[in-house]
Amino acid sequence: MAHTLVIVESPTKARTIRAFLPKTFRVEASMGHVRDLPNNASEIPAAHKGEKWANLGVNTANGFEPLYVVPKDKKKVVKELKDALKDADQLLLATDEDREGESISWHLLQLLGPKVPVKRMVFHEITKEAIGRALDQTRDLDMELVHAQETRRILDRLVGYTLSPLLWKKVAWGLSAGRVQSVAVRLLVQRERARRAFRSGSYWDLKARLEQTALPFEAKLTHVGAERIAGGSDFDETTGGLKSGSKVKLLSEAEAAALKAAVETAPWRVAAVEEKPTVRKPVPPFTTSTLQQEANRKLRLSARDTMRTAQALYERGFITYMRTDSVHLSDQALTAARNCVGAMYGKEFLSPAPRQFSTKARNAQEAHEAIRPAGESFRTPKDTGLDGRDLALYELIWKRTVASQMADARLTLLAVDIEAAGATFRASGKRIDFAGFFRAYVEGSDDPDAALEGQEVLLPSLAVGDSPLCRGVEALGHQTQPPARYSEAALVKTLEKEGIGRPSTYASIIGTIVDRGYATLQNNSLTPSFTAFAVTALLEEHFPDLVDTAFTSKMEHTLDEISTGKVSWLPYLETFYKGEKGLETQVQQREGDIDPGISRTVVLEGLPCVVRIGRFGAYLETKRVADDGSEELLKATLPQEITPADLDAEKAELLLRQKAEGPESLGEDPETGEQVYLLFGQYGPYVQRGQVSEEVPKPKRASLPKGVKPEDLSLEDALGLLRLPRHLGEHPDGGKVQAGLGRFGPYVVHDKGKGEKDYRSLKAEDDVLAVGLSRALELLAMPKKGRGGRTALKDLGVPEGSEEAIQLFDGPYGLYVKQGKVNASLPEGTTAETISLEQAVELLAAKAASGKGASRSRAGTKAAAKPAARTSAAKTGTTKAGTTKTGAAKAPSTRSAAAKAAGATTAAAKKPPATTKSGRLRASAVRVIKPAAS
């Protein structure tokens, strides 16, 4: 039977669209790109294997012709699409309306070779009305968009595949460089350098607790006589002293104490009162960039998780397309938003006229609307049926869109100067005269200490001449703080401001930076590694343009001009890559001049040694005189928790001394008579019973829970960790209950017998060494949640030979099973009622064998390692190179993590728990800690 074939990217999008199309339409998913440049040697067709350019995937000698191949995991998809096309009388390519979506449609057209009419179907929201309009307004492929995406893809491949091999030779195997990635890494490194160069300054001031008409308020010292008191902004960050030419008074502790005594007994008088009316206007609706920033600030979502969640909301018809630079709202959206305001807040909260906003970002592409709730009327968050992060993100989008059509907020800023004993204090307040859009939404700040605009700070009624009562004065000492590290929100904001990359690629770029070990994400801050310092220094010295923000921004602008036909793509690639000043020539000329020994050395001032990048991470190296008078090299592993900004001479000397002298015993285990040691490995501190020997190559070890300071660890605590898991008692339903410490942190487990175990993580307030049976039963009774806060539909059980259960979840793409970090979707026709443990094991094993997820954790019957043991999933073979929606290039291959683990020395302890929920241990006297061998 003839039908119209519609091809979209994902199964979820297909399911949603299918509901709005006639029965004569068949909707299939391409599962993203069906064709790409080869990612490894095995994907190169036999006809091209002998070509010098084949590994690059771009024939630079023949007009930069790309070599496109169908990846192994997409061949089945392509066959199914071809079969579906056989009975079709029309083909509609309904991929996303952006460069990437246009490119996917073009690749589909090239691969499928349809003999029936083909049209491009575009929409920016998945609603019945939008799909109906899209069917009536089909168009042809936009080849300028295709060329723009292709040029960007080729350019990213040229940068990544030309520079990455150089980094493997000169710094470390498996590293990668990227057109946008390397610039982003440099931004992180520059901020860390500023933190390292920072010198803290100290100053004192006073805070008074006052009262007027029985209403208390606070005031801070601003002047002594006519001189302004020094604050944090008056200090030079590189010297710790006042800035040159600064005309402020720096109070010492003694002066602050003397002034405190004077003002406490002196009369207080209001010298000036200032009221300043002001107006706050709502911010525009979300773009891709601002959504990533605000979700990071308010929901603590990474850019990657924000985009995944937004993608799922879009594909299920809840929001409009989530890759956009536009802040424009359609007439339909304006009407829907204003209807929400009137219904929920009242007409007085509506703006007098509909608001439209203009985009100020550089290189903005305004093909779409802003990100907003989908449809002609907006569903309120409570009416969506969403939960978890889906609900949180939808609510954020709903509030921001609705607030954009609300009235201005009217505020009065208050400032009162009060004098006492020749000193001037200031009390500041804020009165909200009309809340306006504050009722719905207040934008977050990158400064965690900044108060939200919507918060009132009320002061009592004060007039000049009033004499408030002093209820106490406090002298406060302050230390200036180093520049804050970038949060994901702050980095995204900087990249967009500089015009670097595309907002739709930021999530992938930040993800690559973290995945490749250039930075770690802790407490929402991106901390660059020593490897990032080494790579950035090499690129700054030998390829400065490629990490220069202005050069990269200009490159981005040129790519945008290619998409509009203003610049020809081929001459641009020729100029960039070939010729005397081209990248290819630069790398060939400079490779011989780059000394690997220097490139692997991180230069940090003030250290009694050097930092080097080795096969297993960063380490310290210095020369020392041995007992026989000869000179030898002394090396000490740098624990991952020590950051470049925090490494000083004292820490370096301690690590080197501990390496030279060996570990110090915490005491003796009374049960075995063996000594218990506290050591440092690459992955942090751990305790060990006994020494490594031929008879005992792997003595008992236990990582310290995150948050536990090594200097506070007692022998009792160390013995408790080494004796985990603890038996807590019997479960009412049968089986034993234990508490232990695994790679994901402290946990309790119900061992039901026959290999079936039910785990729950301990909360931050729980102590793994003290938690009792009643608390464990309380935790085990809680619903088990999966990634993203989703609750498992059911436990399928624990496969034989494994210690981790397989669970069933309902996600944005349908039902799936999960064990550890491996997920596998249920095949069509399989339901929650019919899926069995044996089927789940087969699905997970197949997923692991396909290479997706297998590198992260063991799958199938070997999915989970013992909770208290270090796991090291081997990442062998080749990995993807180049990028899809990112300016970063992945290395074509990566060194086996298993080999890395096997080569580690006896000091390399098991990796500490990755969870932030750690047990708290009792403190004891501080002791010297001995690090592990390098």
From TrEMBL:
Keyword DNA-binding: yes
Keyword DNA-binding: yes
Region feature (Disordered): 849-934
Active site per database record: Y321 (o-(5'-phospho-dna)-tyrosine intermediate)
Top-level lineage group: Bacteria
Function: Releases the supercoiling and torsional tension of DNA, which is introduced during the DNA replication and transcription, by transiently cleaving and rejoining one strand of the DNA duplex. Introduces a single-strand break via transesterification at a target site in duplex DNA. The scissile phosphodiester is attacked by the catalytic tyrosine of the enzyme, resulting in the formation of a DNA-(5'-phosphotyrosyl)-enzyme intermediate and the expulsion of a 3'-OH DNA strand. The free DNA strand then undergoes passage around the unbroken strand, thus removing DNA supercoils.
InterPro entries tied to this protein: Topo_IA, Topo_IA_2, Topo_IA_AS, Topo_IA_cen, Topo_IA_cen_sub1, Topo_IA_cen_sub2, Topo_IA_cen_sub3, Topo_IA_core_domain
Enzyme class, first EC level, given as a word: isomerase
Gene for this chain: topA
Keywords: DNA-binding, Isomerase, Magnesium, Metal-binding, Topoisomerase
SUPFAM superfamilies: Prokaryotic type I DNA topoisomerase (SSF56712)
Pfam families reported in the protein's UniProt record: Topoisom_bac, Toprim, Toprim_C_rpt
GO biological process: one example: DNA topological change
Domain Toprim: 3-127
Family of the protein in this entry: Belongs to the type IA topoisomerase family.
HAMAP family named in the record: Topoisom_1_prok
Assembly description: Monomer.
Domain Topo IA-type catalytic: 142-584
GO molecular function, one term: metal ion binding
Organism: Cyanobium gracile (strain ATCC 27147 / PCC 6307)
EC number, as in UniProt: 5.6.2.1
Descriptive protein name: DNA topoisomerase 1
